[in-house]
Amino acid sequence: MSDRSSARRYAAALFDVAAKARSEEAAGQQLTALAALIRDHAELTRVLETPAIPTAAKKNLVLAVAKTAGVLSSEVERLISLLADRDRLPLVPDVASAYVDRLNQEKKIVPAEIVTAVPLTPDHRAAIAAALGRASGAEITLTERVDPAIIGGVVARVGSVVFDGSVSRQLERLRQKLSA
């Protein structure tokens, strides 16, 4: 089983447990904070990935770091213990990412990437998010990228669906029609 697949399973299990306790948001915030701690400290990451260090020592270290940072509910603590017992602590950042994806899916929040030729104003950004939300039937969180190669217009990717309203694509279609 791949690491991404394993991470999704652990995240789904945590989500189910947190949902029963009605603490999905808190568990997600705590897990994300812990993942950021691990990701931001290269030495801690190396310790967790080193097979020479006993799993019990790794477990105690991560639990101590999490408690010191104040990011530990009983649900997250049990997940950390489970990952430590299976020597899978390096998966924490992937589990956190998968958990956020699962939480967003439950809340019907869909990430979308938009590409424009020039930076958007806040009003245009809000209008595009609203239009994509109506088209997808979900709340949209936007990430924006500027690419002058599209000349003008917008290219939006919502999940696996691409809305291409760029000038470069329109010119390409016109070229194809003229050559046909």
Task: Give a nutshell description of this structure.
The protein is α+β, with helices and mostly antiparallel strands and 180 residues long. Helices cover 63% and strands 14% of the residues. The chain has eight helices and four strands; from the N terminus they run H-H-H-H-H-H-E-H-E-E-E-H.
What does this molecule look like?
A four-stranded mixed beta sheet has the order 2-1-3-4. It is elongated. 63% of the residues lie in helices and 14% in strands. The protein has 180 residues and is of the alpha+beta class. The chain has two domains: 3-105, N-terminal domain of the delta subunit of the F1F0-ATP synthase (Peroxidase, domain 1); 108-179. The protein is built from eight helices and four strands.
